[in-house]
Amino acid sequence: MHFKNIIGQHTVKQKLLESIAAKKIPHAQIFMGPEGSGTLPLALAFAQLLVCENPTKTDSCGTCAGCLKASKFAHPDVHFTFPTVGGSGSVSSNYLKEWRDAISTNPYLNVFDWVSILGAENKQGNINKAECVQILQKLSLKSFESPNKVLVIWMPEYLKKEGNRLLKLIEEPPKNTYFILVAEDSEEILGTILSRCQIVKVPQIAEDDILASLLDKHQVEPSKAKNIARLANGNYLVAQKMMAELDNNSAIVFLEWMRKSWKGNGAEIVDWVNEIATVGRENQKFFLQYGLHFLRECLVMPWQTQEQLRLGQEEINTAEKMRQVLDWSKIEAMCALINDCSYHVERNANTRVLFMDASLQLNTIFKS
Ligand SMILES: [Zn+2]
Fold it and tell me: CA–CA separation, 44 vs 29, rounded Å?
């Protein structure tokens, strides 16, 4: 992975490059940022740079033996730890092939995508004791080909208390050994680990950078690209999934849901629920994502000009009508409800029950 292939994140890249140029690379860093912000691609690019034999000021060279191996995620001095699902004996090295395939295909993936690739959507990933023991062993060996050794730990949130086994190593790593932890949620990481790492904050990707990528790399038609960049909310994973969705009719379906929930006709709601229940979890997630975006725009509408609103003309018309029947607190309650739905869709809830219940709650909010 090259820095130049990372979407946006210019400031973060600059800071990382400066730390390398100044030879002030922290031995343990956490790249901390929300899903889809590119924390893992940044870690992969950084790791490649550390084992590149002829780095330039701005990137790894891409042609040396180190780069060729690192770009396939198969450099013997770049190690990976990530959540696995196979029980107490399960370690990352058992899943290296799947891991390499997955991050070659999409380094912006999330944990849900990853465990789905392992065929275990319903299981919680885990980084267990056996993995920690293996890390201690791996990093005690001399490096094989590069002067540097790197361990990328993806989602240290899953280490739980086992992380304590790594404290000493993180605090006093062997010479030229670098830890790059890639995380989303600092509250889920042991404080003892956090306090031993330099935190590199990675923000959401700027809307313009997502737009540029959709137009230049993926040749998405401009008006669709603008819509996706707006809806993705800085999350490149969401942008990719929206791109893949052939017919993005979330707006129509969402407005229909609002209308039916407002009317509160049981038979109509059941029809609508039966339809949404069949479109698949990924589409349900886009749909809810869209709903949140739409409601947030409704919230800020009174203070925005039409140009500032991230909505098309037809959506603005509907939003204006909705503002007449919904005050601030009701819209907020709907946002909370939809957020909650999204959470449960991701965790394999029965979507028929979920959307039925949500429709009834929406009706209560409308009528309250
Ligand atoms: Zn190189």
Answer: 13
What is the number of H-type helices and E-type strands within the chain? 17, 5
Look up residue 204 and give its DSSP letter.
P
Q: Which long-range contacts (CB under 8 A, 24 or more apart) does 228-233 make?
A: 230/293, 230/310, 231/289, 231/290, 231/293, 232/36, 232/207, 233/204, 233/289, 233/293
Ligand 1 center to 198 CA (angstroms): 26
Q: Does any domain span residue 297?
A: yes
Encode pLDDT of 86-124 as tens digits.
888 899 999 999 999 999 999 999 998 899 889 876 678
Q: Tell how far the Cα of 28 is from the centroid of ligand 1, in angstroms.
A: 22
How confident is the model over 151-194, as pLDDT tens digits? 999 999 999 888 999 999 999 999 999 999 999 999 999 999 99
C-alpha of residue 228 to centroid of ligand 1, in Å:
35
- Residue 145 sits in which domain range? 3-203
Residue 188 shares a structural domain with residue 251: no
Cα separation, 69 vs 71, whole angstroms: 5
